[in-house]
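= Paired protein data =
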Amino acid sequence: MYTVCLVEDEVALSNVVKAYLERAGYNVICLKDGTSAINYIGNKVDIWILDIMLGDDINGYDVIRAIREKDENVPVIFTSARDQELDKIFGLELGSDDYLTKPYSSKELVLRVNNMIKRVYKEKQDKKITYEEYTIDPEKRVVENNKKEIKLTTLEFDLLLLFVENKGKCFQREEILSSVWPRDYYGTDRVVDDLVRRVRKKLPKLKIESVYGYGYRLL
């Protein structure tokens, strides 16, 4: 499931757009100001939707600058009530991929997000991942061993994908929590240990190494 981060200070509009995006199959994170957006950078986001004028001293231009310092490739769609050519040009110069003028149709926004996702992540959608005897299809969210499907829960699959897409990288438990669990989870990070144990049991050829006092990595 792709994650959309919607940065919009108009609560009513944010709720409507969120509903449309979720209906289209996206995981949606809603933020109301620039400070929250900048603080969220570094979490798993597949596409950002940024309003230019936000409810604090940090605007959408500030946010995209911070995003581009961390990730040059993640898609960003700007929205604004100001239909000015200079705004569009400035946004593109800062690295935005699209620009939508308010008021806009939520259906149109979803279509633009769909098209952006298909274009940017086409290689990922078309490409299956092979690890040992396992074949992993990120788009269909299917894992097979010798063409026999292995049933995984949503969290188990997301953990597997995190590891195989970052083979060799050591993850702290907190990093795994922020990448795999819903943003509103407030429990202990020890649930990560239980999830790793379950994935190891279902996929015994998966070489997940425990790093004492730190976390886990896939060899």
In short: The chain has two domains: 3-123, 128-218. The chain has a mean pLDDT of 86. The CA atoms of residues 65 and 94 lie 7 Å apart.
